[in-house]
Each structure stands twice: as structure tokens, then as C-alpha cells.
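Exercise 7. Given the encoded structure of a 541-residue chain, write a plausible sequence.
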């Protein structure tokens, strides 16, 4: 059986674990992957080369890492994730979402979007959750690792790393950094690259190999108002008025799109939001908030925060102006003269708010906040809501009670990475890409090069660029930094593994019509990936 066919069958087996992020299946699939590797003669002879690192979290997620040693220190990390997104969008086909062959045979082309229907009729595509994102990529990396373990004679080393939680907050990869660093120290490994096998083509482009991964910030913007009864509306300020202006100025705003080397991110969008009101009454809420997804390519967190401060100041001014326009119009039609509160909202970064409180209350304040965060983490509060609760708690210590807009950074954070063609490692990766493109052309495949894998990936955690600016801004403005959210930045910088993504051809990422192109996955990709690894591991290149 060919490597591609073995990987295909393994992908079908892996879908049966229903490995949705933060579900029991996510823990079970990790232990199955570990058991497959543990059965290999190589790891029975070298048990210290195989690790199952459990994570203290619900459902027992785990990192699987397996080192196959060859000659010399050069090593390629084969990086993948074994979790998948949920299946709530599958509707009547939900019971078949994890049975790709049965699902594909049951679909009615007439019920599908035109492009999906055309692919279904071709017979070349298989539908199902996890097929293209990314269980086939995982499976192919595993069978390649098995092949290297059986060969026993090759240049370099292979470190297979499979992680949970990529689809949520990358808890798995954040733990895997220390595992990878441990292998690096123990065996004196020099990482030539981290090669991921995330799918490509779902954005409408053709076959591509990518040498970077975009970044992501999650600003949480909390607007504090001045509470009042709805029957005395102008005696206070509804924070939703401020938040509405914040959303109006940020949602889909191209000014917050990032660009680098000819590529552009999509603008921000709201991912979560709400208010701090507990239950229903006829008073306005004390605060309203929203989390914004912001993709980055070259911009630092410091630059993004500066733009957010500018736009939030404009939002505050717009909100106050809207308030006064409403007052003037209502007084005109009602013939009433109102005595108005003074409304001048502050715009603060979380760092600004923290410093105000620290000056006012001293170190005891900081200790109380740290204890509060620790208790929230123990309760299992998700990191966005815990960030919100920390902002609210810090605000209670503020010496300024009036309306304000607070800009903080919530987890997760993904630093952007790209090949800058500056180091020997980076130049070797680019040479490998050029050589692979020539090999692909011989095979009849037009393989283009992309600077970034788009839509974030765990490749963001294999090296750290612009560390100084990144760390300073994050530590100051992320309320959960080292209070429930940890990123081992020193270890991350030490890995220094340039990013490469070369994966299967798929369509409709995270949709019920997720599908993978069988011929490319089974016949073409295995040869391309083998060639890439051989080039990166060859000391002569």
C-alpha cells in the first residue's frame, strides 16, 4: 500500500474519534495516536523518544511527540493538530459528519451549493468533518514518521508533534513548546523548519506552499457607562451607546487591515459581546463589551493598540455628541429643560487603568487581582470572560468613577511569522521551496508560493520575531498574562524553526461542506512532502 493510501485509511480511522475541541474525543484520539507509534519497533527500542504529555484540563487532552533520529543535529518538526471544530452546522447529516465515505454517498447534489455539488458529482472529493482540517495532514505526517522509523538510515531527524486545542486557544501548542524545547536540549537538535500540513485552496486559490502564518490579536473593549433608570434616561449614560460607536468604527474597518509583502488581512469583526448586567430590570447596564478579531501580518501589538486608542477616542466623542443631540431634540419636543450630568468618557488601555489603580492602592491591589484571577482559572471560566471579569474587578479600584472605554488584549495571541530571507535557515527553506516547485512542475502541478498561511495556525509558536515590542505590549495589556494565560516566550524564541505549510487541497473550511480532494491527497502530496523533507534534512543543501 502506498504512503498516500495508508494515510487515507488512517484519516478515515481518525474521524471515528469525534475529536471536537474540548471534548472527550480529543483526549481519546491523542492516546490512539500515541498507541500507534508505541507499537512501532523503533519506539519499543527507544521508548524515551516517544512522549505523551497530558494537560491538566477537562477531558484529558494531550500532546504526542515522537523523535526519529538519523545522522547529525538537523531536525524538521512535523506539526499537526488532532482536534476538529464542532458539527452543529451539519443539520440532518449530523450523524454522518464523522463518517466521510457514508456522508459523501448520502449527499444530494441538489441540496448543496453549486461548487460543492460539482465536486460531489466529480467523484474526486470526500466530505466530512476533519477530513481536510486536518486529519489527513496528521495521518500523512504519521505514516511518514513511521517510514523514517523503519528506514533506520537517513540524514537529520524527524520530530512528530500532534497537539490538541488548535481550534480553540492553542492550549496544546503552548504546552508543546516546552516538550519540543526539551527534545532540542536533550538531543542537541537544530530545527531546520517546522512543517505543518494545514489544508490549502479553501480560499479559492490553487495549489500553494506557504512560508509563514498570520497572527491574531483579540482586543476586548469594555465600555463603562453611568447607570440610570430608563425613566430618568438622561441622568446617566448607557454604555451601549459608547459600544455601538466602537463597533461602528471598528467592524469591517479597512484601516485596521494589515499588509505585508503584497498580502492583506481582512478587517476586524466582533466575535463575542454582551454586558455586565445580572438579570433584568429597567436600569441601564453598568458596562458593555465586545471582543474583536484582528489578523496581523507585520504590525506589532503596540501599533495595533495605538490605532485602537485613536478610534476609541473618536467613538467616545461620537457617543457624547449623540447623547447631546438626543437631549436637545427631546427638550425641544417636550418643552422640558434638563439638568445634565457631566459626561467626559476616558479612553484607557488596560495598562493605563492598571497604573492608575496601582498608584492609588499599592501592591496589595495587585496581589488581590492576582488571587482573583487564580480563583477564576480554577473555576474553569473561559479566558475571554475571565479577562472581562478582571477588567471589571480592576475598574472597581479606579480612582475615577466616570464613564470610560478600556482597551485590553484577551487570549489567544498568535504572533505573525514569515520568512524574511535574512538567516541561513530562512534562505535554505526558500531554496527548498524553489526546488519543490520544480519537482511539482515535472509532476504536472502548478505549485505557487505564499508568504503566509491565512487564518492562523500553530506555526505561530515555532519562532518569535520582533520579540521586544511584542512582549512589552502584551504583558502590560493582557489582564490574564501569567494569571491563567501563559506563553513560554524564551523557549519559543529558542526553537527558531522557520515555518512551512504544505497540506492537502480542500474546500469550505469549518463548514458542513468541508471536503478534501482525494487524488491530490493520496497521489501527489506524499511525494511533494517527502521531497521537501529530504531537501531540508540534506546537509549538502
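Solution.
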Amino acid at each position: 500500500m502506498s504512503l498516500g493510501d495508508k494515510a487515507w485509511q488512517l484519516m478515515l480511522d481518525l474521524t471515528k474519534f469525534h475529536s471536537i475541541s474540548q471534548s472527550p474525543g480529543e483526549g481519546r484520539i491523542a492516546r490512539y495516536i500515541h498507541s500507534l507509534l508505541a507499537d512501532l519497533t523503533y519506539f519499543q527500542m527507544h521508548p524515551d523518544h516517544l512522549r505523551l504529555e497530558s494537560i491538566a484540563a477537562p477531558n484529558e487532552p494531550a500532546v504526542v511527540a515522537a523523535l526519529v533520529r538519523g545522522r547529525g543535529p538537523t531536525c524538521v518538526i512535523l506539526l499537526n493538530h488532532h482536534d476538529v471544530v464542532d458539527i452543529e452546522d451539519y443539520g440532518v447529516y449530523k450523524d454522518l459528519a464523522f463518517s466521510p465515505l457514508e456522508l459523501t454517498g448520502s449527499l444530494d447534489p441538489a441540496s448543496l451549493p453549486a461548487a460543492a455539488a460539482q465536486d460531489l458529482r466529480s467523484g474526486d472529493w470526500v466530505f466530512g468533518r476533519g477530513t481536510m482540517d486536518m486529519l489527513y495532514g496528521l495521518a500523512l505526517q504519521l505514516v511518514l514518521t513511521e517510514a523514517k522509523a523503519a528506514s533506520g538510515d537517513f540524514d537529520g531527524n524527524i520530530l512528530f508533534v500532534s497537539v490538541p486545542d488548535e481550534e480553540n486557544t492553542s492550549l496544546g501548542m503552548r504546552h508543546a513548546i516546552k516538550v519540543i524545547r526539551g527534545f532540542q536540549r536533550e538531543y542537541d537538535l537544530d530545527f531546520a523548519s517546522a512543517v505543518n500540513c494545514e489544508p490549502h485552496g479553501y480560499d479559492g486559490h490553487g495549489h500553494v506552499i506557504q512560508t509563514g502564518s498570520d497572527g491574531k490579536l483579540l482586543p476586548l473593549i469594555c465600555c463603562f457607562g453611568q447607570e440610570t433608570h430608563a425613566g430618568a434616561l438622561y441622568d446617566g449614560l448607557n454604555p451601549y451607546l459608547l459600544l455601538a460607536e466602537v463597533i461602528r468604527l471598528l467592524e469591517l474597518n479597512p484601516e485596521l487591515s494589515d499588509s505585508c509583502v503584497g498580502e492583506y488581512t481582512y478587517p476586524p469583526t466582533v466575535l463575542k459581546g454582551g454586558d455586565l448586567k445580572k438579570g433584568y430590570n429597567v436600569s441601564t447596564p453598568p458596562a458593555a463589551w465586545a471582543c474583536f478579531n484582528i489578523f496581523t501580518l507585520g504590525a506589532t501589538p503596540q501599533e495595533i493598540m495605538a490605532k485602537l486608542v485613536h478610534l476609541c477616542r473618536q467613538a467616545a466623542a461620537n457617543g457624547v455628541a449623540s447623547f447631546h443631540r438626543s437631549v436637545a431634540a427631546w427638550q425641544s419636543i417636550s418643552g422640558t429643560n434638563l439638568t445634565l450630568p457631566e459626561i467626559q468618557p476616558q479612553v484607557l488601555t488596560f495598562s493605563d487603568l492598571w497604573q492608575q489603580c496601582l498608584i492609588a492602592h499599592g501592591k496589595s491591589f495587585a496581589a488581590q487581582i492576582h488571587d482573583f484571577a487564580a480563583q477564576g482559572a480554577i473555576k474553569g471560566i473561559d479566558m475571554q470572560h475571565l479577562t472581562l471579569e478582571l477588567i471589571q474587578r480592576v475598574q472597581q479600584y479606579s480612582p475615577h468613577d466616570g464613564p470610560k472605554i478600556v482597551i485590553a488584549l484577551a487570549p489567544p495571541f498568535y504572533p505573525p511569522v514569515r520568512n524574511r530571507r535574512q538567516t541561513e535557515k530562512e534562505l535554505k527553506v526558500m531554496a527548498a521551496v524553489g526546488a519543490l516547485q520544480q519537482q511539482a512542475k515535472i509532476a504536472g502541478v502548478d505549485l505557487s508560493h505564499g508568504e503566509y498561511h491565512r487564518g492562523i495556525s500553530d506555526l505561530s509558536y515555532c519562532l518569535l520575531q520582533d520579540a521586544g515590542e511584542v512582549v512589552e505590549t502584551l504583558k502590560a495589556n493582557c489582564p490574564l498574562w501569567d494569571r491563567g494565560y501563559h506563553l513560554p516566550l524564551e523557549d519559543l524564541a529558542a526553537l527558531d524553526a522557520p515555518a512551512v505549510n504544505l497540506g492537502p487541497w480542500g474546500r469550505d473550511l469549518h463548514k458542513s461542506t468541508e471536503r478534501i480532494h482525494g487524488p491530490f491527497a493520496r497521489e501527489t502530496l506524499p511525494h511533494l512532502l517527502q521531497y521537501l523533507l529530504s531537501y531540508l534534512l540534506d546537509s549538502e543543501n
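Remark. Residues 464 and 524 are 32 Å apart (CA to CA). Students should compare their own answers with the one above.
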